[in-house]
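Re: beginner question about structure tokens

> Can someone show what the tokenized structure looks like for a real chain? I only ever see the sequence side.

Sure, here's an example I had lying around. Input first:
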Amino acid sequence: MTHRSIARTRFHIFEKQHRNRFVNFFYNERLHRALCMIDSEATKNSSPRTVLDLGCGSGCFSRVLASKFTTIGLDIKKVFKKIEPRSKKLNFVLADISFLPFQRHSIDIVLCLSVLEHVQDLEETIKKIKEVLKSDGIFIAGYPLETKSFKLMWKLISPVSFTFIDQSQTYWYNPSTRKKECYWESAHTHKHEYKNIRDALAKKFRIISKEKLPFNIFPDLLAFYECVKMQN
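And the corresponding structure tokens:
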């Protein structure tokens, strides 16, 4: 079974409540692109690989990864509690992406899809990811290309609503400083535009390849998502 069929079969079951075909395509296709990027790395090195799935949510995609790799799914909310690991290669961690509880240079591949646009401190988060990656580690990030055309299209055809660059605030407890700090109320609030994410990633990593959705040849104005494969 190919990576494409794995992604589409398993995630179709998980997301079949979305009747909108565009939403199903959007979610499934970004996973497919990420799986292809990971698979291309696995073929270069036969040694066991550890994959860290940041912002794993329910953990469904982490389970797909665990069929081939030792996988750690991490999320700030315990959404994954509904899915118990069925493999010794799969573990879930409840933590903030800004305070990764892993040793330096201990992870082979870090996957971060649709997360960076939500974080409070983008550059600090990317710095932490770089620290836990091995010296030759791979970082695969995905983020929406929130152009004016994308926002208009999403509002017209998607049942899922997002707040773009919203400033509504709440507070959270920072375990590092032991103080309350400003946080963001909505999990779907996007605080960073794609151009800022691109620039921040380029400062810390060497870009290997990029994939745009729906087609790689599309300019930013016509594309709606980008997956980037980088090396530490």
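Each token stands for a local structural state, so reading them left to right follows the chain. Helices lie at 3-14, 21-42, 60-66, 122-132, 148-157, 194-204.
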